[in-house]
Amino acid sequence: MTTTLSSTDTLTRDALAVLQPGFVGTTAPEWLLRAIGGGLASVGLFGRNIATPEQLTALTRRLREERDDILVAIDEEGGDVTRLEVRQGSSFPGNHALGAVDDTGLTRDVARELGRRLAACGVNLNWAPSADVNSNPDNPVIGVRSFGADPALVARHTAAYVEGLQSAGVAACVKHFPGHGDTAVDSHHALPRIDVDLDTLHARELLPFRAAVAAGSRSVMSAHILLPALDPERPATLSPRILTGLLREELGFQGPIVTDGMEMQAIASVYGIERGSVLAIAAGADAICVGGGLADEDTVLRLRDALVTAVRTGELPEERLADAAARVRGLADWTRRARAASEPGTAAQEGTAPGTATVSADQGAASGRPDIGLVAARRALRVTGTAAPLTRAPYVAVLTPVANIAVGEETPWGLATELSRLLPGTESATYGDTPAPDAPAPRILTAAGDRTTVAVVRDAHRHPWMSATLDALLTARPDTLVVEMGLNEAPPRGALHIATHGAARVCAQAAAEVIAGRVR
After folding, report:
1. Per DSSP, what are the bridge partners of residue 258?
2. Is 315 exposed, middle or buried (0-12, 13-18, 19+ CB in 10 A)?
3. Out of 95, 102, 359, 420, which could bridge 147 as a Cys pair, Cβ 3.0 to 4.6 Å?
4. What is 433-485 written as a DSSP string?
């Protein structure tokens, strides 16, 4: 097997074409450029690759010097999951906030503006939106990434998001098929299992994916979850019954199927990434996402060689690998034509599938709505209570759970930064789950002194220590304000209770405006 990423062999080029690897750094390493020259058709970007829009634009321009139609993918959901604004928090509220507003026109506009910003930086494939129905409020990994718990609501907003994003020339990748909402386990750590019958799956989990297919979503991402009603043996990513039988044949989806990250423990700990990748392509997947954790040349070589070996030994039909590579290249061609169509003076894009929005020449930078994210965040707020606006800087206590891997620990959240702009002198501290007698409440009360306390929580219903801390704070100081920046499942409490339906920076800004009496 070759130890170089440069190749003219068709089989080897096809094996590279189905990989979507990541890399480390804010410039393209030489091994990645060689891989693109050798047939690699996609690159995945993460927060570690992005410093500024200008740097990102230069990076994608360098990638396109090697291959004009390279797919540059990113996990940019907006809201809690952002890579474009990983160091400051997102300018867009996430799905749950949009679902709380329940205005599909607004969802479409938000997705279009997000797509416009991605396209301006040279990104043309977004691993979004999440079409999961969050039917389990204790779900540790989906939560506010979902539009909600109502399948019909999730379906109509998924379709609107796909239309808005793709109207900016950025391909959508609807996830996590066939639905990750009814899980209590994070597939980054272990294999979740959903034990419901087929009727429930079709009426609940699959409804948003049918809507996404009808809306023309250019790609779909599979989930690393076990659904015994569909396949009792293999997780969806590795299941021919689910990827080929259900998604391809029953739902009629013909675009590329992208796997969730293959280094996630739901796959890696059971099958290994090489074996898992071979099984995924054989099952009907077309692109292997890897690079969130493993992001080096050796990983790409190992996966490429595993696929080539599987073909040569007869485990993986060569035509299946060729078909997968062709679907990936077909998506790359769509993005190239979409980019050309968005440039002034070019003809409108031709040959798009029915139901897929195209990009017209008048949808350039001047047509953007840079404030649409804040507009949406303000509309998503749910305020309970009648406390007067604060005129004096408060003390902000941020009760912080362990961040899930999809969100990451590097993205800031909370209210301190935004409140400080409106109420100078605002102080803040972060508090985690600690055993009594070192519980957070006494320390918070001591630090706050005679200032009003603003307690910021995230999914308080899932964390007993948060609820207990709020109880203690409200008993001692009934004037405490509570801001819930996760799922709003617990009863409202506090002199003022604000549910933001997400922890994006614009959600914090909207809440801060209410607290300081600067509502617009």
Report:
1. 221, 287
2. middle
3. 95
4. ---TTS-HHHHHHHHHTTSPEEEEESSGGG-HHHHHHHHHHHHH-TT-EEEE-
Strand ranges in 97-233 using DSSP code E only, listed in sequence order? 125-126, 171-177, 219-222
Residues 6+ apart with CB under 8 A from 61: 122
Any idea how long the chain is? Answer: 520
**Amino acid sitting at position 8:** T
Q: What is the pTM of this model?
A: 0.92
β 288-290/382-385 pair status: unpaired
> How far apart are alpha carbons 342 and 239 in whole angstroms?
38
Q: What angle do CA 332, 338, 343 make, to 5 degrees?
A: 130
Q: Measured between alpha carbons, how far is 356 from 174 in angstroms, rounded to an integer?
A: 14
**Cis amide prior to 178 (ω within 30 degrees):** yes
Average pLDDT along the chain, 520 residues, taken 10 residues at a time: 64 97 97 96 96 97 97 96 94 98 98 97 98 91 94 98 97 96 75 92 97 98 95 96 98 97 90 96 97 89 97 97 98 92 53 34 51 97 95 96 73 92 96 71 95 96 93 96 96 96 97 92
Cβ 41 vs Cβ 328: under 8 Å: yes
Angle between helices 151-167 and 207-214 (to 10 degrees): 30
Is 260 one of the annotated active-site residues of the chain? yes
Contact (CB, 8 A) for 169 and 123: no
Q: Among 96, 176, 188, 463, which one carries the catalytic annotation?
A: 188
**Residue 328 carries which DSSP code?**
H
CA distance 48 to 60: 15
Q: Which of 75, 132, 186, 260 is catalytic?
A: 260
Residue 317: φ, ψ to 5°:
-60, 135
